[in-house]
Design goal:
heterodimer; A: 482 residues; alpha+beta; Uridine Diphospho-n-acetylenolpyruvylglucosamine Reductase, domain 2; Uridine Diphospho-n-acetylenolpyruvylglucosamine Reductase, domain 3; Alpha-Beta Plaits; 4 domains; 19 helices; 19 strands; 37% helix; 20% strand; B: 430 residues; Vanillyl-alcohol Oxidase, Chain A, domain 3; 24% strand; globular; binds flavin-adenine dinucleotide
Chain lengths: 482, 430
């Protein structure tokens, strides 16, 4: 990067806020998806909204693409740098600016760690509901960009439900506000569009979040089934009985083994493990838990345990939340996949995955948010064995194709990023993708904010949309019929 | 000349009309009457396409011909928003009423935009489910209209707004694009969340042709209670105490007016055991003498608020405030209603959203609305006028759109560059 531009950046963020030496830049080469790497030209560490604006203005003037980065835990290459671009790390903007209990709102900077929000408000018995497994390290800014989910989103909703307002620096450096502390601010729901846009519409510099009061009682049940089929049937019955549990998670045998090896969660050994959490008023939860128990039993659960203490409950969750990392215990390499199916397609898709896995000679461990059909197949392989990596990648892609065919989605929470761009055209038709990119052009006409992500085919904003072309009406059938 | 023949006379070029007829059939193109007027603007034609494809073609042709299009569902909230800058044709979804798929075991439904909320709910209830939304006038209001106006009622507190319930949408754009986003699974982050963009956009970006929603089970049982308080100060204390408690209430609303002390209603849903326990807790929060069990009819309060007798002397507004500003806001309302000699009633939800009815002369209404809007905007809130007397001097329905207005205009420009859809009806002249 030209010294002239580095100097301008330095003038904004100071020496401590600019990283440009190759050794230090390595840290920023990739995010949680470590097989894709690009060296950024520089990394900037602003500590205020004004800094971010200043940096982005330079990028705008010099046409330098920029990629925002939170904690770098993303699993789809969202924070992967782009060629000839810079990275803007929000890690130093990590202040909780305001806690407003009467209105159950907090205002935070983007670099605040997810779990720190709950930590801050727990003395008054509130919590921040979206709880990705990475919550002790990932940032709220990253959560906003990915519309992150977590086990408890079944009942409480994803990040987007909990973001009331945003302060955003657009790619020309201008500052805008979406939503606000009160609901339904007049105008388009741009906060709704921004959440989940993976850093392609601008940089969030301040976020207004909703807090939730901790329920009176939380009960967690573990049920061991012969296979994921019986466990899946139990899930269907629980939902059909009209219950909305706080969480329903499922793990298959391989995933259980890995979690056991990693954190000794004391899970029963079985083919399909179900974790059901109910919360709410004590009397309500106890009545419903009895019912869940019966449902599990009637679907063939061999063992049912109710966590007896907060400690036991925490351990149950520790096993589940450590599941991805735990794969390292049973396989040298693995791909974390993220796909969604309508919950009822579970048995069919599971047996298809099983078949593909045997065909390819590649093992697949399964962890899912079973309540909402979000699968996390973990494709295990050994890079040292020739051909295995390719086979694993191919299998991982086939799983996504299964999800699409079942009427689901290629990602439930990890995002499209760089990783799944190509899959987008299998899930969406061209007009769908073009329409999304028109929205993008309104936000970022020069396409400087995390360009090259999400969309399979880039589209210049200059291409004029909405122009009448005579053959459109003709082909729409007007000409012949008139 | 009666209204019908008059609009016929000033109608579109016959050639154009014939093209529309060629697209949807003779019986689905008719001259607009006075009953089709939209906040003072008289459209010329009403067109009712029967399929998504037909709708796209009608929209495409209108866009090409430079006609202003007003999408219409049940027509119950056509008066919301500003008067259109122009209005040539009403594009009605009245024939697009299909419930495409109720995947009850997956708790989702895919439905065409013209289906009424009531019919949808009836179908869903056959499997013990509901769309957890209680919009106004469900017997006429359609999916598309409710989405475009972002209408919500008491259920919002527990289940969120439409933005939290919609998981997929298909929209027709003026250039003939038919675009889907989201999908039919509850959890999905592939691509931009356009269902949220069109929710509350008042039909200014595209015409919603179908939507997919996540559903909730119908409650096993429910019980409602009313709590009376002496003044707004006490009501606010009660509301904040309930919100800060471990109660799992589904609804919480408070009634205020110029002629009676405030009353709050609370509804619990769940098992009998849970309901009994929650009643006991509620009685601990407030003086027991003030609490009485009430019938579910109290949950029609929003429609009652809208059941005013004199449209020429009434203004209705949606207000949005911070929950902890409830008492102060009600004081402001009372004060400005007094100053302008108006009668008033308000229905406020614990979310901070609410409805306000003001009655009096057109000039006084305007004065009061203006003062109140200024005050609410000064405390992070907003006031959107949903109904005003025809004779009231022009008054922007929306108020301040903030520093994102230019971006909103850019979004509009991208999707509807010729300003075909509902021109001038939305914020900041969009
Ligand atoms: C072990 C493990 C478990 C995980 N479990 C879950 C899970 O359960 N659920 C889940 O949803 N995800 C999970 N993830 C994925 C990841 O943690 C989330 O996507 C998280 O939200 C990313 O946050 P981050 O701060 O690390 O963001 P990064 O990875 O740094 O960035 C992610 C994206 O956000 C953009 N971005 C970052 N900050 C901003 C900002 N201020 N403004 C605009 N754009 C910005 C980046 O450009 C990038 O596109 C897991 C990851 C790991 C490693």
């Amino acid at each position: 990067m030209e010294a002239r531009i580095l100097d301008q950046f330095r003038a904004i963020v100071g020496d401590r806020g600019l990283i440009s030496s190759p050794e230090e830049l390595h840290t920023y080469e990739c995010d949680g998806l470590t097989n894709m790497r690009v060296m950024p030209r520089a990394v900037l560490l602003p500590n205020s909204t004004e800094h971010v604006q200043g940096i982005v203005r330079i990028c705008h003037r010099e046409r330098i693409p920029f990629v925002a980065r939170g904690s770098g835990t993303g699993l789809s290459g969202g924070a992967l740098p782009v060629e000839n671009g810079i990275v803007i790390s929000l890690a130093r903007m990590n202040r909780i600016l305001e806690v407003d209990f009467p209105n159950a709102r907090v205002v935070v900077e983007p670099g605040v760690i997810n779990l720190d929000v709950s930590g801050r408000v727990s003395p008054r018995d509130y919590f921040y509901a979206p709880d990705p497994s990475s919550q002790s390290i990932c940032s709220i800014g990253g959560n906003v960009a990915e519309n992150s989910g977590g086990a408890h989103c079944l009942k409480y909703g994803f990040t987007t439900t909990h973001v009331l307002g945003l302060e955003v620096v657009l790619s020309d450096g201008s500052l805008v506000h979406f939503g606000g502390k009160t609901l339904d601010a007049p105008g388009y729901d741009l906060a709704g569009v921004f959440v989940g846009s993976e850093g392609t519409l601008g940089i969030a510099t301040e976020i207004i979040l909703r807090l939730v009061k901790r329920p009176e009682c939380i009960r967690t049940l573990l049920a061991a089934f012969p296979s994921t089929n019986e466990a899946g049937a139990a899930v269907s019955d629980i939902i059909a009985a009209g219950m909305l549990p706080a969480a329903i998670e499922m793990m298959d045998n391989l995933a259980i083994q890995a979690a056991e090896a990693a954190v000794h969660a004391n899970y029963p050994s079985c083919g399909g493990l179900l974790l059901v959490e109910l919360d709410g008023p004590l009397a309500e939860v106890e009545a419903l838990m009895t019912h869940v128990n019966e449902i599990c039993r009637s679907n063939g659960a061999s063992e049912i345990r109710l966590a007896q203490s907060e400690g036991e409950r925490a351990l149950v969750w520790k096993g589940r939340k450590a599941a991805f990392a735990a794969m390292g215990r049973i396989s040298p390499n693995y791909i974390v996949q993220d796909g969604v199916i309508p919950r009822t397609a579970l048995p069919q898709v599971m047996s298809e995955i099983e078949r593909l896995s045997q065909e390819a000679g590649v093992r697949v461990a399964n962890v899912f948010h079973a309540g909402d059909g979000n699968l996390h197949p973990l494709v295990l392989y050994d890079r040292r064995i020739p051909g295995q990596e390719k086979a694993a990648e191919a299998l991982s892609n086939s799983i996504l194709e299964l999800c699409i065919a079942a009427g689901g989605s290629i990602t439930g929470e990890h995002g499209v990023g760089e990783d799944k761009k190509k899959m987008m055209s299998k899930m969406f038709a061209e007009p769908d993708l073009v329409t999304m990119q028109r929205v993008r052009c309104a936000f970022d006409p020069l396409q400087l904010a995390n360009p090259t992500k999400i969309f399979p085919t880039p589209r210049l904003c200059g291409e004029k949309p909405g122009e009448y072309v005579p053959h459109a009406i003709e082909s729409a059938g007007i000409a012949e019929r008139y | 000349m009666d209204a019908a023949t008059k609009s016929e006379a000033s109608g579109l070029r016959p050639a154009l009309r014939h093209k529309f007829i060629a697209l949807v059939g003779n019986e689905y193109v008719r001259a607009a009457t006075a009953a089709d007027a939209v906040v003072g603007a008289q459209p010329k034609l009403v067109i009712e396409p029967g399929t998504e494809r037909e709708l796209v073609n009608v929209l495409l042709l209108s866009n090409y011909a430079g006609l202003a299009v007003i999408p219409r569902g049940g027509g119950t909230k056509l008066g919301w928003g500003n008067s259109p800058a122009s209005a040539d044709l009403i594009l009605s979804t009245a024939r697009m009423t299909e419930i495409i798929e109720h995947a009850w075991a997956d708790l989702t439904v895919s439905v065409q935009a013209g289906c009424t909320i009531q019919r949808l709910q009836e179908t869903l209830s056959q499997h013990g489910q509901r769309l957890a939304l209680d919009p106004l006038w469900p017997e006429k209001a359609t999916v598309g209209g409710v989405l475009s106006t972002n209408d919500s009622g008491a259920l919002r507190l527990r289940f969120g707004a439409l933005r939290d319930l919609i998981i997929g949408v298909t929209i027709a754009l003026p250039d003939g694009t038919l675009a889907s986003s989201g999908g039919k699974v509850v959890k999905n982050v592939a691509g931009y969340d356009l269902p949220k963009l069109v929710t509350g956009a008042l039909g200014t970006l595209g015409v919603i042709t179908r939507a997919v929603f996540r559903l909730h089970p119908l409650p096993l049982n429910s019980r409602s209670f009313s709590v009376s308080t002496v003044n707004a100060e006490e009501t606010q204390k009660l509301v904040l105490a309930v919100q800060d408690s471990k109660l799992a209430h589904a609804f919480l609303q408070s009634h205020f007016s110029d002629d009676a002390p405030p009353v709050s209603d609370i509804l619990f849903e769940g098992t009998d055991a849970g309901l009994t326990a929650q009643e006991a807790q509620l009685r601990n929060l407030s003086a027991p003498a003030n609490i009485s069990e009430t019938s579910t009819s109290t949950w029609t309060a929003r429609e009652d608020l809208w059941a005013f007798s004199d449209p020429a002397g009434t203004a209705m507004a949606k207000i949005s405030i911070l929950p902890a500003n409830l008492a102060h806001t009600m004081e402001l309302v009372a004060h400005s209603a007094n100053a302008h000699q108006l009668q008033w009633k308000a229905l406020m939800y614990a979310t901070g959203l609410g409805g306000l009815r003001l009655e009096g002369s057109a000039g006084s209404l305007r004065g009061a609305l203006r003062t109140l809007r200024g005050e609410l905007q000064g405390q992070h809130g907003s006031l959107v006028v949903l109904h005003r007397p025809d004779k009231m001097p022009a008054f922007d329905a929306w108020g301040m759109a903030g520093d994102a207005l230019a971006l909103m205009k850019a979004v509009k420009q991208q999707l509807d560059p010729k300003n075909t859809l509902n021109p001038g009806r939305f914020v900041g002249g969009i």
